[in-house]
Amino acid sequence: MSIRILLLEDDKLFNETLQDFLEEEGFVLDCALDPYTALDLTYENNYELYLFDVNLPYESGFDLLEKLRSGDDMTPVIFLTSRDDKASLQEGFAKGADDYMKKPIDLDELLLRIHALLRRQVRRQRVSIGAYTLDMVGKTLYLDNVALEVTQKAIELLVLLVEAKGEVVSSEIIKNRLWAAGQHASDGSLRVYVTQLKKYFPESISNVRGIGYKWTEV
């Protein structure tokens, strides 16, 4: 499965350079030149990694990350910045950064840092559910290390329910997570994905009438 990255960099030429380089390395890139566009993209798509510039129009990359973290978006982020003072470094990590690179960026070093961060994320996000293993980053369900043929939206629903740790997740929140803006999301469609998951976890997913769904460890 391709890793999807959101790149936020207001220097159009450097943005395009990074996009070309990372796409050649097999990543899927969505690119933004300003934080407002980037924020909209985070609502529409799920990402495995953010690459954010710091000095941006309207607000800084630090401000954007603070918004995302306050909304429980824990997607790992690497800041790419021309700032070289210790105060900025401290601020970036305080806002929730996972890594920090100073411009000019060495592309080979960037690639190494991306792979290292994604490996750490995978180790943190592999969850055992009985005989199954859920890769919450790669969005894949395994049985005895064999990937199962489960639709992407069903996996995203499973991740969302498991992340809630026993709390009820409303149908509205589920629809907003699983379907991008403008896509049709019906209760019937949602039930299809619930039914898919119940083939593997018949006792773990319960419908809370009129509200949504809940995951219970069995």
Search tags:
218 residues, alpha/beta, 8 helices
Question: How does this structure look, described?
Answer:
The longest helix is centred in the middle third of the chain and has 18 residues, at 107-124. The radius of gyration is 19 Å and the shape is elongated. Helix 6 packs across helix 8 (187-198). The strands form three sheets. Strands 2-1-3-4-5 form a five-stranded parallel sheet, with helices on both faces. The chain has a four-stranded antiparallel sheet with strand order 6-7-8-9. It has helices at 12-24, 35-44, 61-70, 86-94, 107-124, 152-163, 171-178, 187-198; strands at 4-8, 28-32, 49-53, 77-81, 99-102, 126-129, 132-135, 140-143, 146-147, 169-170, 205-208, 212-215. Helix content is 42%, strand content 22%. The mean pLDDT is 87. The chain is of the alpha/beta class. Strand 7 (132-135) and strand 8 form a beta hairpin.
Q: How much helix, percentage-wise, in residues?
A: 40-55%
Strand order of the largest sheet: 2-1-3-4-5
**Average residue pLDDT:** 87
What would you call the shape?
A: elongated
Distance between the termini: 29 Å
Number of separate strands: 12
User: Which value, in Å, is the CA radius of gyration?
Assistant: 19 Å
Give me the number of helical elements.
8
